[in-house]
Design a protein that fits this description.
51% strand, 122 residues, single chain, four-stranded antiparallel β-sheet
């Protein structure tokens, strides 16, 4: 499993979104990363929101690649799962800033984490 901070300093040439379940990051050095969650029985982990335009990150070196998570009460939720995790991924270049917010919920026995893997070495 790759660390999200591996993107720091890399230049993105393309970002592909697959529904609310996956993001693919293609870098100019030939590397390819995938952000997703391997779903299991009693859990759900999806992209809840993206603030900013992912395309604004294309073509400039990333100056920020940061992951932050918490388990605060989900604001505005009508139901409260037994366990939940918010995970924020912050990406920036000179002139662009994007936050990707994932929301994971489960019965407390399953993972709510987002997976970030290197698909191809650059």
């Amino acid at each position: 499993m790759a660390a999200f901070k591996e993107l720091l300093g890399k230049t993105l040439e393309k970002i592909e979104r697959v529904g609310d379940e996956e993001l693919h990051f293609f870098c100019t050095d030939g590397s390819h990363y995938k952000m997703y969650h391997e779903q299991d029985c009693c859990e759900s982990v999806t992209i809840e929101d993206i603030v900013g335009n992912l395309n604004d990150l294309i073509g400039k070196p990333l100056t920020m690649a940061e992951e932050v998570s918490n388990s605060d009460d989900p604001v505005g939720e009508e139901h409260f799962p037994e366990s939940y995790t918010w995970t924020y991924y912050k990406l920036a270049t000179v002139g662009a800033y994007v936050t990707i917010r994932w929301f994971g919920e489960s019965n407390g026995y399953y993972s709510e984490a987002v997976d970030f893997v290197r698909v191809k070495e650059g």
